[in-house]
Amino acid sequence: MKAAAYVKEGRVCILGVESTPFGPVPFAVGVSLDAGAEVPADGPISLTSDTHSESVKLALSKADRKVSNIVAKQTIELAAEDLVERARAGDQNAMGILTEIGQNAARQFPRAVRALQACQSYIRRNPERARFSGEPSVASTALARVVKTQLKNPDEDQRRLAVVILIPALALENPCAAVVSLADGDTLLGKLGLKRIKDLMSEVPPGPARRAFRRGIENPNALATSKAQKLGAVVGRAWRLQRFRLPDSPASTLSSDVGWELD
Amino acid sequence: MIPLLPLAAALGGLAWWRARAKKGMTPERQKVYEAALASLKDPDALRKLADAFQKEGLAPQAELLRKRAALRELPAEVKTQRRDALRKGLQSKNVEGVEKLAAAFAKEGASGAAASLKQYAAGLKASTKKVA
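Output (structure tokens, whole complex):
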């Protein structure tokens, strides 16, 4: 799990993303501090520090429970999507598991009932049809929506956290959505933009991964072979998109191919 | 001993004749056509390829290759208009509009601009689509 906590106007908030076998589960929760409790200054706080006041510890623990509930619920939904789509594709194991879930749900086993409800709900909302390769999964769509909401947050610190924590996950799940979200967010141009790009780069371990990140930024249309390069390519494409949106920018800002066609 | 060289030459000739004898869009021609649209930047080569496609009865493909070859020779004001249209498209939040613009660029042989718009539309769609 990758998460960060912060205090904003008397609320303790946790923003992050949990990796599950079925895809990333993003979360953003907030818990108000008890009335009369000492309210710490707005800004990032540690998720685990012992130096927190009792009221902050209590709020963090409540927020943590909320996160666990969100992750558990979303994981079941993603697992249901995975199971249903595998069964539709003719996977005998998936069909067997679905049958077993149905039988156990009929015996009122609570977990099976929840799983069955999740599968039925997914089927209702996604009637059987040909699924195109490359079509975004439920996980990536949910993540893209959370990123979009978080990047519209009026507080700059929270937008920064969202970029650093959520964009790397979205870059792997749905690079196109990550590019658009990043390009539509705060500027990546100029000194301020460089600082934001460095923030993102600090999430990549130094050494070969960081060099791959830089390669991704410099040549975002090349085939990315590592996670770091994929993230770099997303940042590079978002940077080019913002740059091209400026009046009178040449089309070659986007890529040499587009430049050949339109410059 | 089997005369390998003449045999290979004969087989190669047969394959060439079969490939030539095929009319219409074969998988091989489709690959050549897509690669040319995606990356061929020499107008003369594009026109030669367009002539070859025309001879094989592939007139729509030939026309698009000729349009791509002509992109570099378009008047400056047309290029500026197209760049501005692309700029507007890449700022739009209207997925359908962006997809239509991508199709319009593709029709003019500007496959790079069309691809940029398609990727942008896909990104927009993901963050506006209802979670199932």
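The radius of gyration of chain A is 22 Å.
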